[in-house]
Amino acid sequence: MKWLYKLERKYGKCYIPNLMAIIVFGSLAVYLLSATVMPNLLSMLYLDPSRVMKGEIWRLITFVFVPGGGNSILVILNLYFMYAIGMALENYWGSFKFNVYFFIGYFLTIIACMLTGIPDIVMTNVLSIPGFSISLYLAYATLCPDATFLLFFILPIKAKIMLYINWAIIILQAVEFLLHGSFLGVILTFVPVINYLIFFGPSTVKERKARKNNVIRMKDYKKKMNANKKPYTHKCTVCGITDIDDPDMDFRYCGECDGKHAYCSKHIKNHKHIKNNKSVD
């Protein structure tokens, strides 16, 4: 991604450090307030285009602090995974690249919701993962497929399994919207993963092409090896009989001939010695 490297060289110092920690702890505070003293808080913060157009512009920022729906266990699990994954990505990429990845998804979510008039809560999937954070799961699972998480702090699950689960949920949600004739819903389903496709799409295509070329080269190599491979172990230099023609034939190598020349029992003492590929008496 040359554009990203150029961007980092020019604006590499412009980023928010510990961005994921800010969002996760902000989301935790919002959840605790909504669960105790301000039960209507979430409805005041999520991205609702109709409310934004009426002047509630704070929703353009506060929607990232709205935790996914569901019960307390799902909310805590999602916040835990978001924090662990977000901090891991920031350490892996660096703060600037992580900020670019996150804010591409952030601005695309705002644009999609404002153009369609549909609230961002539609993008929250069945696992109660907020739409803008789905791409974080996909990015981490792609970079660290063998990393292991403890689901419910008990069951070990590899990151690549999370990748498959998230893609399956995305596709199923898109199909569900499609069956109900909601093409806008289909678009909003894929909006949260556009930044993932921008970052990983080109490299994935290159890797698949390289893998395909490697497979083709390996097949060609095996064909050549099989073509050049001799079906026999020993062959008489004089008469050409092989151990396949006569499994009981005894073969010997002549010590006076240059190179490795095998002879059957009939010609081991009855042949012209080969010196530098020339027969001599």
Helix percentage range: 55-70%
* SS element count, helices: 11
What does the main sheet amount to? 2 strands, antiparallel
Rg: 33 Å
Mean pLDDT: 79
Structural class: mainly alpha
Proportion in β-strands: 5-15%
What's the end-to-end separation, in Å?
Answer: 71 Å
SS elements, strand count: 6
**SSE ordering:** HHHHHHHHEEHHHEEEE
> Widest sheet: strand order?
1-2
Give a short overview.
The chain is mainly alpha-helical and 281 residues long.
Structure, explained:
This protein has about 280 residues and is mainly α. It folds into two domains: about 1-210, Up-down Bundle (Rhomboid-like fold); about 230-280, no CATH class. It is about 55% helix and about 5% strand. It is built from eleven helices and six strands. Strands 1-2 form a two-stranded antiparallel ribbon. A two-stranded antiparallel sheet has the order 3-4. Strands 5-6 form a two-stranded antiparallel sheet. A hairpin with a 2-residue loop joins strand 5 and strand 6 (about 280). Helix 6 crosses helix 7, helix 7 packs across helix 11 (about 195-230) and helix 8 (about 130-145) runs antiparallel to helix 9. The longest helix is centred in the last third of the chain and has 35 residues, at about 195-230. The protein is elongated, with a radius of gyration of 33 Å. The N and C termini lie far apart (about 70 Å). About 20% of the residues are buried. The mean pLDDT is about 80.
